[in-house]
Amino acid sequence: xxxxxCAFLGTALALAGCAQEPHAGEWTGGVDTLPxxxxxxxxxxxxxxxxxxxxxxxxxxxxxxxQDGPEAFGSIAAFAVGATGRIYVxxxxxxxxxxxxxxxxxxxxxxRKGGGPGEFQGANGLAIxxxxxxxxxxxxxxxxxxxxxxxxxxxTHPREVRDLGYGWNGGFAAGExxxxxxxxxxxxxxxxxxxxxxxxxxxxxxxxxxLPPFSEDYYRAVTGRGxxxxxxxxxxxxxxxxxxxxxxxxxxxxxxxxxIAQLSLRGDTARLVSREYRRVPVxxxxxxxxxxxxxxxxxxxxxxxxxxxxxxxxSALIGMLADDRGYLWVxxxxxxxxxxxxxxxxxxxxxxxxxxQTPMRGWVVIPRALIRGDHLYCVxxxxxxxxxxxxxxxxxxDYAPPAGSD
Length: 406
Hints:
This protein has 406 residues and is mainly beta. Helices cover 3% and strands 39% of the residues.
């Protein structure tokens, strides 16, 4: 089912005016409702948390690095977490999935590199379905492989989406698998659209959700015949950010503004969330530094970058993700440092709560971080660029783990 979406980029959102100093726990934003029924949330720069109610994260588990064995990861492509805290790590180089229990102890390895049943050639995504089965997404083999809790292959399904992207943007939402795909190429200047396809294990893809058209801005090397040979992203240009919400939504933003749309999987714009923020200008030094490091020596002779295409301001947003309880976690620009990055947290209604300081030194977009229950899971790297999986306990977030096993 293809339905046009309300392009929230064109919606005029008046930011809330300067609010009075709030009391602890008081949210001072505003709520409007558009004629379409879309709820518009205007958030002030300051959230409702105070020093007592703000969430905090503390590291309580680290898997790897190691010289050898299952904890020695070559390149982590994706990871997933089961209901009981079991951790699944997909290694891109080895093309296998290492399984660890909630204490970080190695359990087993699932799959290996190859083209046979239960083997992978270019796996780049993991998801756990409502029954606890593990789905491995393999674009190169054009299939999904499904494993039970013992690591036994219990099914395969064809994957009709033919992208060979570096990372996978999909997962289970409202109990069904939605496979995210962006039909774009740096060589193609035509506006493209991100799509989510719903998989029916018997009938294949039965529905699709198309997001508004968007194309990133690139400098392109073009031959005399007009063929694009190479492309480089314009520094500080806007990017499309997308996060699947397992309650049955997709969050979508264009990074140059702090404005995020919540779309239902039927294609309706359910909510528009904005937050006041300070715009950061792109300085002359920023432009010169970015352009000097953008092209290699061979490309400089064929590409004439136009500095005027570089935006006057840096992006407002770098990344975002939705957790398993509907909270939205957002990384704004300028929130990184030696002590780690700070994430903005919004409640399931889109109201800004405040910031959470994390020890993550960077935002690893692929694989994305995960929040499951009262833990945040992420991939970090040591001084030698060796990856490992880190689990952080979120303090102040009351949570009762679900029953069941994986």
